[in-house]
Specification:
It is built from 15 helices and two strands. By secondary structure, the chain is mainly α. It has one domain: P1 Nuclease (Orthogonal Bundle). A hairpin with a 2-residue loop joins β1 and β2. It starts with a helix and ends with a helix. It binds zinc ion (ZN). Zinc ion (ZN) binds next to α5 and α10.
């Protein structure tokens, strides 16, 4: 294969994804350790799966039609202060904006709340496989929501001549500087309203997006062709942002990557924990090495459905009785 083609193919690989695979795996892994004692045994036992499956949403990004939109929200497409003005809840957003438009601009904050409900159901069903699959994937979307470039339509600097900044910020920087980060984020805490917490995370990430782009612009103007270097990985030569460039950029961001990484770890732990609390704190020790049959799970799913319908009906009655 000609060298240039090889290089461009590799850059395509490097450009794909949310946080890089490395970062997503670390976020899920570290989140396990902030869980309370009744949860940590089950999650630790399955930590390799949680880490490995954290990148599944990116793997199916181009294969599943609705997948891509779950990883981001292009706030600037909605005008000024969109993060504070957009409908907080999905049904409200559907009514006001419509599904096509929502899908076109990204749905990550609403998708986090939707998956939280699914995780709560998985705990209610005491279905270990479902709990793990949803926990792992929820960890992915939460981490994406904490990446500044996942909140803007200029997500790869393509509108400002900074193509490649996405992979630089979320793959190259964490891979280079991860060992310097402090991951003590305290214990997982209960969050009453996951949907509002998701919007808060998006607002924080979005507030940093300007600096992400501006600092890189300044630096690239200053460093010119010293920006790139070649590195040998196995038999291949890869064109990469040079180590010096990455280092100065990382310094200019003054701890931002670490801050967003820590915020991701904390929030993933918080959301797993809150779903478990809201499902009535089922005994997870019982789920270690537990392999329920399809029939058992189906029966429980039916029970859960009937139970939800009863609650819905009794609410309707209350509303009718007290208009
Ligand atoms: Zn992603």
């Amino acid at each position: 294969m000609p060298r240039l083609l090889k290089i461009s193919l590799l850059s395509i690989v490097l450009l794909s994804g949310g946080w890089g695979f490395f970062a997503h795996q670390k976020v899920n892994r570290l989140s396990v350790f902030i869980l309370p004692p009744p949860m940590i045994g089950f999650y630790k036992k399955n930590i390799n799966y949680l880490s490995e499956a954290s990148v599944n949403p990116d793997r199916r990004r181009y294969a599943v039609a609705d997948e891509a939109a779950r990883h981001y929200i292009d706030l600037d497409d909605y005008g000024d202060s969109a993060v504070y003005k957009l409908p907080r809840y999905w049904n409200e957003a559907l009514k006001k904006i419509g599904n096509d438009s929502l899908q076109a601009h990204g749905v990550v904050p609403w998708h986090i709340a939707k998956m939280y409900d699914q995780l709560k159901d998985a705990f209610l069903l005491r279905d270990p496989r479902k709990i793990l699959r949803i926990s792992a994937e929820l960890g992915h979307y939460i981490a994406d929501a904490n990446v500044p470039l996942h909140t803007t339509s200029n997500y790869d600097g393509q509108k400002t001549g900074q193509t490649g900044i996405h992979a630089l910020w979320e793959s190259r920087l964490p891979e280079l500087f991860f060992t310097d980060y402090d991951f003590f984020v305290g214990k997982a805490e209960y969050v009453k309203n996951i949907q509002i917490a998701a919007w808060q995370a998006i607002a924080n990430a979005n507030a940093a997006a300007d600096s992400v782009l501006r600092f890189e612009k300044e630096l690239s103007e200053k460093m010119g062709n010293k920006k790139f270097g070649f590195e040998t990985k196995g038999k291949q030569t890869v064109k990469l942002v040079s180590g010096d460039y990455a280092k100065v950029y990382h310094q200019m961001l003054s701890g931002m990557v670490e801050r967003q990484f820590r915020a991701s770890v904390k929030m993933v732990g918080n959301v797993w924990y809150s779903a478990w609390v809201d499902a009535g704190q089922p005994d997870l020790k019982e789920l270690i090495n537990y392999n329920p049959s399809e029939e058992e799970l189906l029966k429980r799913a039916e029970e859960l459905k009937a139970w939800k319908e009863r609650i819905y009906l009794s609410r309707q009655h209350e509303l009718n009785d007290n208009p």
